[in-house]
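Incident review: delayed structure delivery

Summary: a single-chain prediction request sat in the queue longer than the usual turnaround. Root cause was a stuck worker, restarted by the on-call engineer. No data loss occurred. The affected request and its eventual output are reproduced below so the record is complete for anyone auditing the incident later.

Affected input:
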Amino acid sequence: MRLEWWILLAVWILTIGMLFFIPKKKIRLAVTAFLLKQGITWIFGLVVVEYGLLSYPVREFADVNRSSFTYEFFVYPAVCAIFNVFYPNMRSKLIQFLYYCAFCTAMTVPEIFLEKYTDLIHYLNWAWYWTWITLFLTFAMTRWLCVWFFKGIEKEMDESGIHKE
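Output delivered after worker restart:
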């Protein structure tokens, strides 16, 4: 088995393990964020690949889709679910901005190494900062959609998850 397939297996295991940290009372938010992010990354992922900005030489379902199934349909949406579940709602705008930056950086840095040392991703007409910017924008878009969808219900619920009147 090639190194790339071992990396994909490790990423799947790590991501599945990460999902176990989602509190039960926030499952609906996590699922909503996951599905919204899948829709967004499906569109952007296909556009980026079709316009020749990125390529994924080693990928699942190579005969069906030229984007990365692991990244676009599982890892990125799962990280977005975690992002939304633990979002610092009641903190300052600076802390919220730094939260965005931390998640974008934590996803961009490994991609840089994967691009340099593996065949999982190749930048054709792309750079790491485009990854960081698109991550930031899509995290913001998903966060906005989740807040809109739940219409501030997170603020109206106490710690036990019971709706306050």
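Verification: The first helix runs from residue 3 to 19.
Action items: add queue-age alerting; document worker restart procedure.
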